[in-house]
Here is the input.
Amino acid sequence: MDGATLPGAPDGNGDDPRIVCHVDMDCFYASCERLREPALAGEPVVVGMGYEPGEGHGAVATASYEAREYGVESAQPISQALDRLPRMGDAPDDPEVDPGDAGYYRPVDMEFYRAVAASVKEILHDCADVVREVSIDEAYLDVTDRTSWAVVDGDGGGPNVSREPGRGTHPDGTTTDVDDRRTLAEGYARHVKDRIAREVGVPASVGVAPNMSTAKIASDHDKPDGLVVVRPDEVREFLAPLPVEAIHGVGPVSARELADMGVETAGDLATADPAALRERFGKRGPALGRRARGEDDREVEPTGRPKSLNRESAFQSATDGADAKREKVRALAADVADRARSRGALYRTIGIKVVRPPFDVNTRERSLPGPVDEPDLVEEVALDLLTEFDDDEVRKLGVRVSKLSFAGGDQSSLDGWERDGEGRAGSDAASRPGLERAGGGGGTRTGEGVTLRDFEGGATGDPDPTSEQGADDDADRDGQASLGDFE
Here is the structure.
């Protein structure tokens, strides 16, 4: 690179440009529902409240892409959603409901969604040294120290990979030659996507770019299940043809005002007079122009140390073999304890996760008297908790340590950590269910007594220096209901 600073690259002493991944879970709540009800794959799915007969007003939390084809959108009144996409459950009793044009409605189950999100975020923290969790279904990763922008010969990375601008066709209809080289960063992002799909079972779209704002736009560019990589020298060209609404911080109101100024694309915004932008939008104006040029020197700032560490592993096929289950738990416990020790983490809670076919999730945990670093105890407690499921067929197992502390010298002694009459490790805090059984057992849902303010999501953790917290700052482009949508 001859020491040159490429567009979108951070400043500083000829260093290589930063590598940022923006991971955005596709229609996350709907994907979670499909996880425990595989028969919903490919069907219109709406997650929300107020759709049962006799219920009051409600709203859509998220809608699958299939449901969106019928005009169902997040934050939409549930009555409008039902007009556009009737419930499949009403079809047998209502001759006017065509099953071919009906959808599946499910109540919000935040406890289940948080459990799935926790598994995803464990992978993200394992794949990056710096992770900024923006919401339940969105995060930025700085993977600069894990990979590079170096290119290798290849076939472009596979059918779901796009490296703009070389994909061929742009949003404005123009075309460019396809570059068949791929970057190492692209391969690493694919690794992150594949781990989420393989270990958790939900789809994610990933954008890779030299800065946060471009990575966010890239992740939204080829949904669902997309992977878009924007190299440092392609940032300006990638952004230019996009509609101005694609720029982080530009919502519907700002877009209309920009259109009045003759600014309709990111390229228009990039070349707009900074003075005119400032006069119209205050200090946000010139900052939006810089964003449109791909200039964003923000660092990915972590939202804090992890609250838990876990490892999960699936069997090739479901098994009820006690020896196989215990062997896997031993390996997972050793791995988790090693990860905790390598990070200087002490833990006060040890737990397991047991997934029975198709996705009946059960968690159990025990609390310790104080924070410890005891690998043998992790194995002992995990195996003891597993005995409840000795006769069950299992497709996946996990071991978790939580209530982490990172202060040195705080390890507690095991005095008071007593055995029960059968010699098993225990404490006054009996093992308790974490997540109630999902699927056949019916997980605890929050459809009753919950308000829309209880939903999580949105960009509450996403720093935006362009924002004056106007009402139209950066809408959630994947349609996941965000807190801001309801306030």
